[in-house]
Design brief:
globular, Rubrerythrin, domain 2, about 10% helix, three-stranded antiparallel sheet, seven-stranded antiparallel sheet, mainly beta, Pnp Oxidase, Chain A, 2 domains, 3 helices
């Protein structure tokens, strides 16, 4: 199924976080929606393979940080394309411990709310957690929220394979040896652009070490192609 019609559904971009055994973890989620007003309840959908799913199931609480439109791709990549099994995502992230004990990601957040899980619904590869909102705070005024459409169309971002909206795409075949030495290079996994002189990128792409990996999704150099 191509998913051309489903791709027309609107989403936002959020950081959903939880805690387990005193450890924090969070991930990018686009499927967050309010289901009732009195009491206020919100549902989030997470892949069963994700570490945050494990944390929410154990703690029965989660927080949702609403990202602003200008949240950088490196920040989105840290929470969306890297696993908490490999890195501590909150180590260099401004955060606080919320009322529920769940961590709250504060960087680039317009606001947040915290929920206590009241039910779970199995959805094949995913679980829908229904939570009652027990705390909330607005953090910024006059800024727009980051939508999934803006992330895809303007930021040229992609969904990781565990996302509900993931659509498998054919990747461009190329090798580093076929790429010219000048210009920008794009990751065919997450669309990160390596541009010399930007984001601390001091070296031309071809002078990077062989074991260099994409800072967003950890793909190797062989997954990059020269931009036309």
């Amino acid at each position: 199924m191509a998913g051309n019609v489903l791709s027309s559904i609107n989403y936002g971009i959020y950081v959903v976080s939880s805690v387990k055994d005193g450890k924090y973890n969070g991930q990018i989620v686009n499927t967050v929606f309010q289901v009732s007003a009195e009491p206020p309840c919100v549902a989030v959908c997470l892949n069963k393979k994700n570490l945050t799913h494990e944390y929410i199931r154990a703690a029965k609480v989660f927080s949702v940080s609403i990202l602003e439109k200008e949240a950088p791709m490196l920040y989105i990549g840290k929470f969306g394309f890297k696993s908490g099994r490999d890195i501590d995502k909150f180590k260099d992230t401004k955060n606080k411990t919320g009322k529920t004990g769940a961590p709250v990601a504060l960087d680039y957040a317009l606001g947040y709310f915290e929920c206590e899980v009241i039910s779970e619904t199995e959805a094949l590869t995913h679980t829908i957690f229904l939570g009652k909102v027990v705390a909330e705070e607005k953090l910024a005024e006059g800024k727009e929220a980051l939508t999934y459409e803006y992330y895809r169309q303007v930021k040229k971002g992609k969904s990781p394979a565990t996302a509900p909206t993931y659509v498998k795409e054919e990747r461009v075949s190329n090798t580093v040896g076929e790429i010219k030495t000048k210009g920008n290079y794009k990751c065919t996994v997450c669309d990160y652009i390596y541009e010399q002189g930007k984001d601390g990128n001091s070296l031309p792409f071809l002078e990077l070490a062989k074991d260099w990996v994409c800072p967003v999704c950890k793909a190797g150099k062989d997954k990059f192609v020269k931009e036309s």
